Amino acid sequence: MEQQIKELLVERLFLDIEPSDIENQALLSEYGVDSFLMLELVVALEETFAVSFDPSDITAQALKSVNSLAELIRSKQ
What we know:
Elements: H1 2-13, H2 35-49, H3 66-76
Helix pairs in contact: 1-2
């Protein structure tokens, strides 16, 4: 799942890096992901993993890294 999230980050947000360059624990902001891009990512995650996030799920803590995103998705599956 973490690898899929990294690939989505690069593909959907047009990041100029390779998915393998993204560290699971690193803050996504270190890769240039801002709040606008994060909204696009949330939509992509919902589509890809067939989950639905509640507004209360969308917290800074949940969206901070690949690991935290994977944890959030697993909690919704």
